[in-house]
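Board notes (copied after class):
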Amino acid sequence: MKVLVIGFNSRPIVESAVKAGYRVVCVDRWGDMDLVKKCEEVISFKDTLLSQDRETFYLDAVKKLVYKHQDIRFSLIGSGFDDSHVFWREVNKHVPILGNRPDTIKKSRNWRYVFKLLSSLGINHPVSIMANNESGVLKAVDDLKPPVVLKPLPYGGGGVGKKLIKSVEEVPIGLKGKFIVQEFINGVDASASFISNKETCWLISVNNQLIGTKWLYSPGRFTYCGNIVPLTVNKSIRGKIKEMASFLVSEFKLVGSNGIDLILKNGEPYFLELNPRFQGSLECIEEAFNINIVKLHINSCLNGKIDLKATPKRYSGRGILFSPRNLKIGDLWKYNFVEDIPFPGSMIKKKSPICSIRAVSKRKREVIKMLKLKASTLLSKATFTL
């Protein structure tokens, strides 16, 4: 059976699908070496300046692949399109999306509705104000009292565009468009990953998120830099997260693999956002729990049956290494801990992602130690400045 995978970084989903026994074609932003080797065909945009027309590029690529590979059974969508239910609807016209419906995507990004729902359910979340212009942002910042977090809408995901505002004077001049101004919650960056079938939620894992990690040369305070799985929490916290996920499954009729971004503060989980699709933590969860997320996702979507008995066997970490300067990449294929491998000779601009690095151990501190060592090794031996 052949499937189409669509995403900003599709490689983890593709690898999971291949392990589950599927043949794969793919539309991806980067088109890295290890992705290409796993797929029958890849269309990527690594040399294309993608701005507001990104969805048009992707949709054209989907049409080409569907026309050429008429045996594609369905599509799986990853990150990059959470704010575009229109894109989901257009893809669905050409190849069925196995997962949440476009209306679910739209509903999950109706922020006023989401915040009102969370408040009615008594779910912790940052106090949030919607602002339609610069004056609205200034008023919201003043009302909430800094520090606050400023998010542009539509929100790009991965921390793109988010800013920490410590005073009214730090609000950028000349803001245009819509924004969310949120109370800043200082705590542990986390996420939760679960499988659902519109009615029942199976919480798989609570994960440590690497956000703005300096030793990975993160380009921003809120940039997503990977995961360490699992994040050990007590029964009370896990129960609250499970209850939160169950509420969302019931309200949004979620199916398949879904996730929530969280902040854990003083033993209390605070909801940040719902990710109604495959998450960046996928491969770490698979390795830590010895399961296949794509297989679980497909089973839950097609027949609603989920056979899940998951207990962590180890800690698994993935770090996204960003470039501290303009680089020309050498041969990273020889390093067995590297994934999302750019082709030798690729030019990587400062603050752009170079690759992913992986580490596994029975101890979390060892995973962190190994990731740090591998990051420094790559930057010293496998790249050179332009």
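Comment from the instructor: The two ends are 44 Å apart (CA to CA). The first strand starts at residue 2 and ends at 7.
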